[in-house]
Amino acid sequence: MSDAAQPTAAEVRTAAEAVKAALDRHLAAVERRSGEDDPAVYEAFNELAVAAEEYDELLYDRYDEVTPFEIPSGDDSLPPYTGPEEPNALSVLIRRDYAVVEPQRLLAQAGRVADIDAGPDPDSAGSSVHAALGVLFGEFEPDEIASRHKEFGLEEGDSTLWVAAADEPAEPGEWLEAPFDQADPQRVVCRFDVSSVFDDELDPDDDTVTTESLEDADR
Q1: Residues 6 or more apart from 215 whose CB is under 8 A from it?
Q2: Is the pTM of this model over 0.70?
Q3: DSSP secondary-structure letter at 81?
């Protein structure tokens, strides 16, 4: 880059102030979050990512320095978006993996639920892990299972949430027989991934910070 095209010191300083403001907004959104997938947190994350990227570029152009931050990009995991520009409907696809690490705790919790419900055969709830899982996931919402998984003897694995655009809302019962067969990565507007692999990718000898993988197909 020529000297004439370089950003000024003032422009770099302004970009740094924008990062600070974006950090404050992100923290405020997290503190006020209404749930795991609060759109305000998602929006604040994107604003922080944009501000950090702008600052990183200006800092490098002006001073040949970089920041220790790495903002995940959706380019490597999502194909180009080909869905409608103004979707009339959307599908939210969620996958959460768990390991059963304390079967006895799982069985005990299912037994308590069965006793409260006083079903026709409450003893069956504690007879097998298979039966216990059916009782607990039938009683509690998936988000409550996610927030209380340790109480149920479960250990979290990877999870992902896809928001996919649709042209029109599906007819009632249309996809129930095969709910995930029509998932089209090219219609994914954004996705949110959580995995321990992101922690494993960090080098303990450097200061690199990797955020959770919140990816926007338009970014």
Answers
A1: 72, 73, 74, 77, 78, 190, 191, 192, 193
A2: no
A3: P
Query: Helices (H), strands (E): how many in the chain?
Result: 6, 6
- Tell me how far apart the alpha carbons of residues 24 and 26 are, in angstroms, rounded to a whole number: 5
First to last CA, the chain: 25
d(C-alpha 111, C-alpha 117), whole Å: 10
CA separation for the pair 52, 16 (Å, rounded): 8
Q: Residues 6 or more apart from 206 whose CB is under 8 A from it?
A: 68
Nearest CA to 130 among 149, 157, 103, 160? 103
What residues have CB less than 8 Å from 40, skipping those under 6 apart? 29, 32, 33, 34
pLDDT grade for 75, boundaries at 50, 70 and 90: very low
Percent of the chain with pLDDT over 70: 79
The alpha carbon of 64 is separated from its chain's Cα centroid by a whole number of angstroms, namely 33
**pLDDT band at residue 124 using 50, 70 and 90 as cut-offs:** low
Rounded to whole angstroms, the Cα distance separating 55 from 206 reads 20
